[in-house]
Amino acid sequence: MKKLRSLFSHLFAFFVIAVALVFYINFQPQIRAGGGLGWDGIEYYKLYEKIKFGHEVRASFPFCNRIGTPLLAAALPVGDGFKAFKYVNLIFGCLFSLTVYTIVKANRMSFLLAFFALFLSLACFFAPLRFTPFYPVYTDPPFMFLLALAVLFTLKNRFALAFFCLLAGYVFREISFYLFPLFFAYAIIYYRFVKKKSSVNSSLSTSPYYRHVSFTRNVNFKSVFNLSHTMFRLSNKNSSLLVYA
User: Fold this and answer.
1) Helix (H, G, I), strand (E, B) or coil at 57
2) Global pTM?
3) Cβ contacts of residue 63 below 8 Å, gap of 6+?
4) Which of 43, 95, 121, 153 is found 20 to 30 A from 139 (Cα to Cα)?
């Protein structure tokens, strides 16, 4: 029943994401600056042309480091660079929103909180699914998805997978490299304190002394005393009746 409820919950989230996707594609106009490329989009489009067609171009720093999205766009069987970037970023935008929803649900929060988080990941102006139809040639959505995935793996204590997501995110945005110390510090705190404390508690729970302490903490001694006193009085009464009968 619980798995079925979780399945329907994620299907509902997927439906909401699909509705937002259709809405933004049809009603959000594209930016006009830079011929539809915007500003940094000009540099990313140069990388796309270099990878896709082998054109000799020179992209400026730091945009030349962010080859992930241009590489994915060039790998698509699409001749139009605008559409290629839009397809890649919309796909990762959908995955980002779904991952945000999964993070909230994984922490056993209410459906309303999960839906509110999903709404924020769709409605904010710089949300990938909303911003991509307006500004298609940019590199943030894949990075945001990998970052959200790293957070999800961290909450599940899968630190190796979280570090791998951060490493993969570097080719999309170099800020991923600066997040390594934060995630690494969390992993150290978990293994140094949280896991160690839980293992100590687990070992203590198997000892006879711990079971005795747990028993004495949970027993209501007042009730035990009253019961013992009542039984003592009854035994004395019965014994006196037997003696004097």
Assistant:
1) coil
2) 0.77
3) 40, 43, 44, 47
4) 153
